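User: Hey, quick favor. My workstation is busy. Could you predict this chain's structure for me?
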Amino acid sequence: MAPPLPGPLAHLAPLLGHYGYWAVGAVVFVEDFGIPAPGETILIAAGIYAGAGQLNIVAVAVIAFMAAVAGDNVGYLIGRWGGRALVHRWGRYVLLTPERFHKAEAFFTRHGGGIVIMARFVEGLRQANGIIAGTSGMRWRRFLAFNALGAALWVGLWAALAYAAGTHITTLYDEITRYQLYALIALGVVGAAFVGRRLLRRAHQT
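Assistant: No problem, here it is.
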């Protein structure tokens, strides 16, 4: 018997009960090219189900990873071929207003490829990530590499925590989301410092 899902996860029980892995893949996929859908929430709920033996945690993680990468690539194509005009015309129907898009695009442009990884963990940026990468002209291979890494980290974190924590996940979720952006920024600064140090060392050697 499936465990009762805590708090805000409870409304996903019928969806997971009826469709299982299909629900995980579909919801994560559509969220990742801008459609408002509870992708992160259903991943956590599926992890709890897996911890109770109702689903296989490896299958949940693999399906969520593939759906996340595929969804972001659909977003990339939308941004690349449709451009800003398409986003400005239709974005408001998926809560991506021109104002929100411009702010997200400016943030994306300032931080470069690393933001593709960070965006996976930030509500709002996660949904617009691929679209902004496409409109900003980022090379597809570069986007794909950062996107796959971000998706792997995101799926790995929430699937593992939900699987281990079970119905206590909502408490952990609140604490992690409170501090995750600061942790990611700090990680980005450390990474940038490491790269800068290597570049300086290489410059001195030439």
